[in-house]
Fold these 2 entries.
Entry 1:
Amino acid sequence: MSDTGSLDALIQALRRLPGVGVKSAQRMAFHLLQHDRGGAEQLSQALARACEQVRHCERCHTFTEGAVCDACLDPARDATRLCVVETPADQSAMERTAAFRGLYFVLMGRLSPLDGVGPRDIGVQKLLERACDGVVQEVILATSFTAEGEATAHAIAEALKRRGIHVTRLARGVPVGSELEYVDLGTIAHALADRR
Amino acid sequence: MSDTGSLDALIQALRRLPGVGVKSAQRMAFHLLQHDRGGAEQLSQALARACEQVRHCERCHTFTEGAVCDACLDPARDATRLCVVETPADQSAMERTAAFRGLYFVLMGRLSPLDGVGPRDIGVQKLLERACDGVVQEVILATSFTAEGEATAHAIAEALKRRGIHVTRLARGVPVGSELEYVDLGTIAHALADRR
Ligand SMILES: [Zn+2]
Ligand SMILES: [Zn+2]
């Protein structure tokens, strides 16, 4: 339909969202134009504004609108502990525990040789400089407990240890609230080995 | 994080898309800002442009950028047959069969009393006027074969028949390529009753 160029363009643009195929993109475009034009305009403006405003913190690499993020600027935080996470979402999860009052470094990814994501793409050099500022005494690796997250943690740990930095890793173990019967065997084995 | 207002606003705006929860919205925002700012800007512009340009065809109610859509303006089409579908996506599916050369009326929805969608919301009055233009000889109901689609077809058929319009419905039957063993019993029963 040649008279629906801007509708077709919208469907194509929606397909660039992760996890959105052609059917979902059609359904989204239809919903917005038929039932929620206010939502479409809001999303258009939010996208433009975020592209304009959001950049990376100079110290921890997370998303921020200033040069340095609020967490890095907070004098109440313990600057001797640096927690390394993969994404801002992981950082939020850690914050919600209220169990950590140190600072963060956000990799914005993880090593993934198959996808061509190497140490440079996740800012490892920047992390090394950050961790060697003379204030940081412990780097806590909180990357995912997946193959890629473990490989990332391992590579960073090796590099930091060569520079004499004390490195720790989140404990592996049985999730709180789990019945042992339903926990996978690898997790149980780790929980046994790391018993305390 | 108070320094990420425009990121939070983007996540909220993405949640207005159908089928997108808070986790998906976070993942989409993260992906766009980290890996595809070009895509974010493209989507922003496509949304704004579609909101500005896309409206409903005066004759068939589908999405178009002119007053009347290309299909309704096409003199090669058979104006004596009018096919009633629920959405532009259904209309596209019908077009791809290349088996129909008549005109369309797009309801942009279906009757759904539980969701408060009544005859007025799907333009039934407009359809009745359209079908009684003196040219249309047959109205083919191609709404979904779901409870709501069937109720919609039934309500429209009754109204059209009262006005003396000849109404037909797409045949129900066994899908092409199906093995009978795997077809649901209701479909087989209908295929038997409608055998030819
Ligand atoms: Zn920071
Ligand atoms: Zn039309």
Entry 2:
Amino acid sequence: MSSTRDIDALIEMMARLPGLGPRSARRAVLHLIRKRALLLTPLADLMQTVAATARECLRCGNVGTTDICDICLSEKRATGELCVVEDVADLWAMERSQVFKGRYHVLGGTLSALDAVGPEDLRIPQLLTRVEEESITEVILALNATVDGQTTAHYIADQLDGRVRLTSLAQGVPIGGELDYLDDGTITAALRARKDL
Amino acid sequence: MSSTRDIDALIEMMARLPGLGPRSARRAVLHLIRKRALLLTPLADLMQTVAATARECLRCGNVGTTDICDICLSEKRATGELCVVEDVADLWAMERSQVFKGRYHVLGGTLSALDAVGPEDLRIPQLLTRVEEESITEVILALNATVDGQTTAHYIADQLDGRVRLTSLAQGVPIGGELDYLDDGTITAALRARKDL
Ligand SMILES: [Zn+2]
Ligand SMILES: [Zn+2]
């Protein structure tokens, strides 16, 4: 239908976003059209702004609007602790917990033999350089507890062995987690790391 | 964090869309930023276009980019059948089934004593006028099988009683079911087995 071509194209583009499907894209677009002055126009403006200004931090790989991100620039974060994460989403998750006061290094993925992802395809060389050049005392490997995540953690640990203190996030039962919903690996890890009360 | 203010605002705005929450909004925005040239800029442009051109059809309430929508303008659709739906999403669901060849009338909601929605708050007066002025032979009430949907159907049936053939979708629509959630085959079956009221 010619008069709805742009609307159809918008639905199709929205449906390709992670977490959205055709149905939720249709509902989102209808909602946006109903509130076009209040919501659609401001959203489009904001997207234009972000498209023009968003960039990856040259140092850590975080997403921001400056060449070096606020976390890297903050003197308060110069604790000597460097937290290595796979993805910016993981960095944001760490930040929401408000417990880590150091800086980050975003790998941009994990090593994967299957997908032919090697160290040079990630920000691993930059990590090794940072450990050399910045006053890093501890590297915290906060990689996902997946096979590829743990392979990547072991590779980085090998590379940094003896040059810095290396730690990783403790594995166990998440707060509020029900055993019945956890995979065997998590339960095994939680049992092995059990603590005296 | 000042350098991520626009990004945070974008996530917050996306999270308010139906079907998206904070987590899916974060993932969608990260995805858009990664593909900012390929995806974010075109999406923003498309939203601007839709915001500037989208409007409700003055006759039926469908959403399009012209004052009178393509369905209302198409001579092929002048079958004398008028399908009354609650919402544009329901019209789209009917169109996807490709079984209905007539025209539509979008009410824009349902009567609701609880929410103080009366006939004048919907496009019910316009429906009565259309039945008078257009060569309508049959009004198909394709309202959701909810209490409010059926209350609205009965109200419209009362108003139109004796002036036109009145039918409703019957077979295939589950109790409490909403059209927009149904597969195309169910809608097709429901339309084919429509019954006189
Ligand atoms: Zn940074
Ligand atoms: Zn129309």
